Amino acid sequence: MKTKTNYAQVLPVLFGFFVMGFCDVVGITSAHVKQDLLGSYSPEFRDTLSNMIPVALFSMFLIFSVPTGILMNHIGRKKTVLLSNVLTMIAMVLPLIDYTFSIALIAFAMLGIANTILQVSLNPLLTNVIQGDKLTSSLTAGQFVKATSSFSAPFIAAFAATALGHWQYIFPIYAAITLLSTLWLMATPIKEMPTENKVNTFGSVLGILKDKNIFLFFLGILFVVGVDVGMNTASSKILMERCGLSAIVAGYGPSTYFAFRTLGTFLGAIFLAKYASSTYFKWNIIVAVLALLTLIFSHAEWMIFALFGIIGFTIANIFPIIYGMAIQRRPDKANEISGLMITGVFGGAVIPFFMGLLSDAVGSQTGAVIIILLSALYLLWLAFSENNTTEKQ
């Protein structure tokens, strides 16, 4: 079905995906916090403690995703997005008040709440302004904008460190961008879509997981976010450990990862319009697993950067593919399934936690890469079992 696109409505919604990408600053933040604030701690605990930053952020997805799906049914999608922006701005101010490890944990926990609300509500809000044949490409475009935000974070941190005197001034920059997004969206009239058969209890929402396929997709979201956040968190530390780079220079590790992930989302919008998402899923996850296996044994700086790029490119579209499969299975429950799928972003807390434990246990970042690899192996299994979970309905 061909539909006319109102770009005056679409653009402020897509810009919200840039704010959504702020959660990925957690990777360079954990490396800086480890260097700035954890120097007095025993070396065997530094990785575990610094990885509590992503745990504080992504654990909020477990707690607040389902309530956000319920809240959306009551106040509407646009107001839910605006609420998330207000919480994001508050989170960005906290590290400027007092730069301590405990305040950093609180700030990133609040950013986690804000980002949970945003991720649950922004994709459904996009369906308010885009329908028909352009919806899939628009969702992919949103992921491209998010990836651009993630890619730019190390550069913004480097600018803050060199031009403003400290990397942590990235936070007021992010607050200003969020304010711009808030004002733009507030000034944009967007009609709320009517919601039928509203679900107002946890039990009713969680009951959707009784569908085996939805549950497998939920686990897929958990592990793909685990791979993504795991690479974001570990890449700087791998370069510092194996190549002796400083925290600022090693910050270009996550930047490389996100640059290729950004390229992957851009090209994915083209490829997914021509090829089946299941085929694209299979080939990309095969390459990602092979790259992670190689990363375990790599110590050359150029090879490590190359592998970061390969992994970023191949993992780029797996999240929207799985998310789209889940929504398409039960479009009548889009708000509730969105909440459930975004709950899986909790994988960004679970996977780095085990990465830190195994890294400290083996005394190197090889432990972190092994945990990421195990997550990718589940996605490999899901890719080749996907036909059994979707096409035979």
TrEMBL record:
<feature type="transmembrane region" description="Helical">
    <location>
        <begin position="303"/>
        <end position="325"/>
    </location>
</feature>
<feature type="transmembrane region" description="Helical">
    <location>
        <begin position="12"/>
        <end position="33"/>
    </location>
</feature>
<dbReference type="GO" id="GO:0005886">
    <property type="term" value="C:plasma membrane"/>
</dbReference>
<keyword id="KW-1003">Cell membrane</keyword>
<feature type="transmembrane region" description="Helical">
    <location>
        <begin position="53"/>
        <end position="73"/>
    </location>
</feature>
<dbReference type="InterPro" id="IPR011701">
    <property type="entry name" value="MFS"/>
</dbReference>
<feature type="transmembrane region" description="Helical">
    <location>
        <begin position="103"/>
        <end position="123"/>
    </location>
</feature>
<protein>
    <submittedName>
        <fullName>Fucose permease</fullName>
    </submittedName>
</protein>
<feature type="transmembrane region" description="Helical">
    <location>
        <begin position="255"/>
        <end position="273"/>
    </location>
</feature>
<dbReference type="InterPro" id="IPR020846">
    <property type="entry name" value="MFS_dom"/>
</dbReference>
<dbReference type="Pfam" id="PF07690">
    <property type="entry name" value="MFS_1"/>
</dbReference>
<feature type="transmembrane region" description="Helical">
    <location>
        <begin position="364"/>
        <end position="384"/>
    </location>
</feature>
<feature type="domain" description="Major facilitator superfamily (MFS) profile">
    <location>
        <begin position="9"/>
        <end position="393"/>
    </location>
</feature>
<keyword id="KW-0812">Transmembrane</keyword>
<dbReference type="InterPro" id="IPR050375">
    <property type="entry name" value="MFS_TsgA-like"/>
</dbReference>
<dbReference type="InterPro" id="IPR036259">
    <property type="entry name" value="MFS_trans_sf"/>
</dbReference>
<feature type="transmembrane region" description="Helical">
    <location>
        <begin position="169"/>
        <end position="187"/>
    </location>
</feature>
<feature type="transmembrane region" description="Helical">
    <location>
        <begin position="214"/>
        <end position="235"/>
    </location>
</feature>
<dbReference type="GO" id="GO:0022857">
    <property type="term" value="F:transmembrane transporter activity"/>
</dbReference>
<keyword id="KW-0472">Membrane</keyword>
<feature type="transmembrane region" description="Helical">
    <location>
        <begin position="280"/>
        <end position="297"/>
    </location>
</feature>
<feature type="transmembrane region" description="Helical">
    <location>
        <begin position="337"/>
        <end position="358"/>
    </location>
</feature>
<keyword id="KW-1133">Transmembrane helix</keyword>
